[in-house]
Every structure is written in structure tokens, then in C-alpha cells.
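Design request, C-alpha cells follow.
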């Protein structure tokens, strides 16, 4: 009749910890931000591939793998799914560790930049100007973009704010490279900051009061040595589709 599911098809992931030599509090703590970002991208790519494996079976991380009477389902590859899930769990733990190390590295780098900027203030003007340029370049180096402007409609809120095609977005309101969640955070910021009009009656006269909520947007632009800041007002009544009038692609 078969065996119950309890001890069947146990994961076959290798016994060596995924974090050994890569994310544990050893060599990676001294890794550069560039190396950590590369590790982050690698983990994201593997997680995406493993997610596709689950999708091919029509399951997710929580789908049941047994029949109502406790036996392995015959319509899916239970062993592969359990192995894939185990790998995803390990990679997610690695990802949290890498992200924490990147955040710590960014804080440390900014502190070093502030100390460097303070020290250059006490030098001569030419030396100070040179130091300022170096700090500026370093600041741009740690600005991490998470989206790219692919297109902009004429007369749109995005165009009015100053966005240009090719701009790489580093900040969009509360959204940044660490929390944008495949740009869903951007959509949330837009919906929460829509410019709206309210009709008010004052002594028999109708007044239309326009409430504009500005969203701080920071971008990196090829022709600019410094990050560019602007304020964007999401609106529905600008005459085109959407509240931004631009198309963003995740990076």
C-alpha cells in the first residue's frame, strides 16, 4: 500500500552549510561592498531559478506534498520539491546575512566620508576642493539604484519633475534598493501620495483646494557627477495613463 510520508523523500541537499566560506562572519566581513553586491545578485539569481523549479510543478513553499491520507502525491516530484525548498530556505538566510553586511558596510563608508570631509575643511582651498571631489565620487559610488527610467510621456508628472529616460532611481519616497520588493513599494508610495483636489464652500462660493503631495526622488544620471534630487507629484488628471507617466524597469 505504500509508506507514510513522514520519512520518505527527505531532502538530498549536501550536508555542508551553504554559508561556509561565503556569508559566515569570517572573510566576508572584510569583503568590499562591490563583492557583497555581487554575492547579493548571485543569491537573487539562484532564488529566481529555484522559484521557477517550484512553479514548474505548480507548487510554492507552502503547498502540501501528501494526499489526504498522508501518502506522497503521485502527480509531482516530491523529492525534488523538498530539496528545492530546503535550498531556498538556506539561500534566504544567506541573503539576510549579506544584506545586513551591506547595510553595515554602507554605514561605515558614510562615516569615513564624513570624517574625510571634516579633515579636508582644515586644509588649504585647493586641497579642500580636491578632497570634496573625491568625497563626491565616493558618495556616488555607494548610491545603489534599483530601477531605470525606460520611457517618459510628454507633459507627464515625471517629465515635469525632471526625470529623464535612462535615469537610475536610487530613492523614490520611502522606497530604496533594500525594500522596493520588485517595485511594489514604488506603487505603494505613488498611491499614498496622489495629488488630490477638494471642493470647499466658502460664503456661497465654491473653492477648489489643490493638495499636492510631493515625493522625493533621487537618481543617478550619466552626465552628472552628483546624484540628482527632485520632487514628483503623482496625479491622475495630467491627461495620460497612470499617475507618473513613465515606465520604470527593475534593475
Amino acid at each position: 500500500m505504500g509508506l507514510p510520508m513522514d520519512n520518505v523523500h527527505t531532502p538530498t541537499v549536501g550536508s555542508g552549510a551553504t554559508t561556509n566560506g561565503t556569508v559566515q562572519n569570517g572573510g566576508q566581513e572584510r569583503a568590499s561592498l562591490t563583492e557583497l553586491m555581487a554575492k547579493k545578485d548571485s543569491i537573487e539569481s539562484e532564488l529566481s531559478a529555484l522559484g521557477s523549479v517550484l512553479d514548474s510543478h505548480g507548487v510554492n513553499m507552502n503547498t502540501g506534498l501528501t494526499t489526504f491520507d498522508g501518502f506522497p502525491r503521485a502527480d509531482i516530484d516530491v523529492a525534488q520539491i523538498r530539496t528545492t525548498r530546503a535550498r531556498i530556505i538556506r539561500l534566504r538566510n544567506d541573503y539576510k546575512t549579506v544584506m545586513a553586511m551591506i547595510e553595515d558596510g554602507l554605514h561605515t563608508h558614510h562615516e569615513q566620508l564624513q570624517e574625510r570631509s571634516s579633515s579636508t575643511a582644515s586644509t588649504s582651498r585647493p586641497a579642500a576642493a580636491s578632497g570634496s571631489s573625491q568625497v563626491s565620487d565616493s558618495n556616488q559610488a555607494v548610491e545603489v539604484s534599483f530601477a531605470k527610467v525606460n520611457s517618459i510621456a510628454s507633459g507627464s508628472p515625471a517629465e515635469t519633475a525632471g526625470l529623464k529616460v535612462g535615469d537610475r532611481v536610487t530613492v523614490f519616497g520611502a522606497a530604496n534598493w533594500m525594500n522596493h520588493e520588485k517595485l511594489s513599494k514604488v506603487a505603494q508610495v505613488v498611491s499614498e501620495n496622489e495629488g488630490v483636489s477638494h471642493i470647499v464652500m466658502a460664503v456661497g462660493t465654491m473653492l477648489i483646494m489643490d493638495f499636492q503631495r510631493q515625493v522625493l526622488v533621487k537618481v543617478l544620471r550619466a552626465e552628472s557627477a552628483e546624484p540628482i534630487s527632485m520632487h514628483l507629484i503623482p496625479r491622475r488628471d495630467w491627461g495620460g495613463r497612470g499617475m507618473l507617466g513613465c515606465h520604470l524597469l527593475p534593475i
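Comment from the thread starter after seeing the answer: thanks! The first strand starts at residue 147 and ends at 152.
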